[in-house]
Amino acid sequence: MLVKCVIIFILTAGKFLFVKNSQVNIARNRQAFQSTTRVYSPDDTSYAYRANDDNINIHHLPQTVIFQCSATSAYETGSWISIDLGKIYLITKVMVLSRDTNRYKDLKNFTIYAEDFPKSTKRNFCYYKENIVKRALSTALSYYETYDCAVNAIGSFLTVDHLAGTKYLSLCDLQVFGDFIKERDYDIIDYTNNKFYAGTPFNPNLQLSHLMDNNLTTFFRSRNEENINKLPFFRLDLEYYYEIYGLIVVGATSANSKEFSFMYISISDYPQTMKSTLNKYCVENFNPAQTSYKDGKSYIFKCSQPIRGQYILIHMIDENDVKSKHFFEFSELFVYGRKIGNPNSNRNTKDIVAMHESSIDRKSFLLDGIYISRGSSFELNQVNNNYVRATLSPPIDIKVFCITANHAGTVNNGIRITIKDISNVQKAYLLSGNYRYEQTVCEIIPETQASQIEITSLGSHAILEVEIFERGIISTKFKIMTQIIHVYSSKNISY
Ligand SMILES: *[C@@H]1O[C@H](CO)[C@@H](O)[C@H](O)[C@H]1NC(C)=O
Ligand SMILES: *[C@@H]1O[C@H](CO)[C@@H](O)[C@H](O)[C@H]1NC(C)=O
Question: Is Signal one of the keywords (predicted)?
């Protein structure tokens, strides 16, 4: 029997840790990322996952066979590929299978690391390969090169950094072996059944699953044309409350696409879509030099510290160049986080605060969680002197008030929220009206026992959604959610 079983005893804090040296390839079919992607045609695209999937084929005959290996752009320097192993391992061995094409010579001069996130500052060296990896003539084991890692190659990502200049980083198979050390705090969040909101216009057929399908032909796009949607955004409304560690965004491949630039990514307790102190930023004004090799390019964002929240906002702000035609687009979005709790656990959307408007009855669409202007809305404008008003009984201590609104022009007078407290003292808050068509804007309200809320427009706005976050609600299950619960059931509404 050739079963190799190495038992390692590590003395840690007076405890023996029992680890078994596994013969299982821990990289197979795990999520893979690479710096850029060689795109020959929509089908013949050398995705990162082709390096570690079940389909191993070393040939490339474009007329008959789709190349089944990974490959970065040949025009890029500093290319890399990274496999998410999902758990923390002591990596002991890496095996590489090159290709059976003349470009096999491109695969040389690379360093292998174990790390906590792709291209991390916390990386542990595994192996340096200087010379050309042998040409694969078949997929037999003898054509693989095997590298034994340096000691302490501990990590949950295995990354190969190519140092060989403008050459393909192309792998037909990549196998990784190691000893399980422990579970990782964070993982890829499956948000495909959650909701998203983006300012119009955006590609109407987008489904969230398209952003996790490893398919460059399905992507999110919001166009930032002159005078249209100058502040494009994409907001992911997570169903649960999370601690977010980082994000990996993969760009699109369209001819007009540019680098993922002028980007801000925040995590928030509130649905605010414009730049705000309510948003906790993981990325601020990310603005890489424009390069020609941008197809399927991966942008790695590890937050400097984990950030908690329920809404992930990606927005583009190029205030110095509002006339330029940027495309805001990306094909994949991988969010790494840890679930903290369920903010909906004591929220009953049927019973949340009801609103009505002067001439029309109850406006349930204001509370339906549908933000898009293609859904229901109604026009509030100063000329008609109409308003939305809710009477709150018992009173509510509103912490944050959010309105999603749309307007036709680039500049518009604002929206006024008037809050009446239990002593009939009124206080007005003015939200800027310059939403560049459509945004969710939130206002922090000082401690007040509000008995009535009224919304009026000083210009003309279509109101799509209203959300009220109550101060100091202690959720029985998750204390952490204190400030983010929608107003819910126990309140009685009178008109
Ligand atoms: C490997 O790449 C580095 C960085 O580009 C370069 O300095 C070095 O000369 C290369 N070594 C070989 C053997 O190609
Ligand atoms: C990628 O998506 C396109 C469009 O939905 C689809 O036609 C194609 O089959 C997908 N490719 C793969 C490999 O799933």
Answer: yes
| Mean predicted confidence (pLDDT) in 347-370 | 49
CA distance 258 to 322: 16
What are the pLDDT digits (tens) for 373-406?
Answer: 665 667 787 877 777 877 777 788 888 888 888 8
The answer to whether 367 and 353 are in contact (CB under 8 A) is yes
Is 218 a pocket residue for ligand 2 (Cβ < 6 Å)? yes
CA nearest to 25, candidates 53, 58, 46: 53
User: How many CB atoms within 10 Å of residue 38?
Assistant: 24
Q: Which of 76, 109, 131, 160 to mutate to test the pocket of ligand 1 (most atoms within 8 A of CB)?
A: 109
pLDDT at 50 > cutoff 60: yes
Of all protein residues, the one whose alpha carbon is nearest to atom 11 of ligand 1 is: 109
Q: Examine residue 394 and say whether the peptide bond preceding it is cis (omega within 30 degrees of 0).
A: yes
Query: Which domains are present in the chain?
Result: 7-184 (2.60.120.260), 195-341 (2.60.120.260), 349-494 (2.60.120.1190)
| Whole-prediction pTM | 0.88
| 109 CB within 6 A, ligand 1 | yes
Residue 217, ligand 2, Cβ within 6 A: yes
344 lines ligand 1 (CB under 6 A): no
The answer to whether the CB of 215 is under 6 A from ligand 2 is: yes
Ligand at shortest distance from the CA of 210: 2
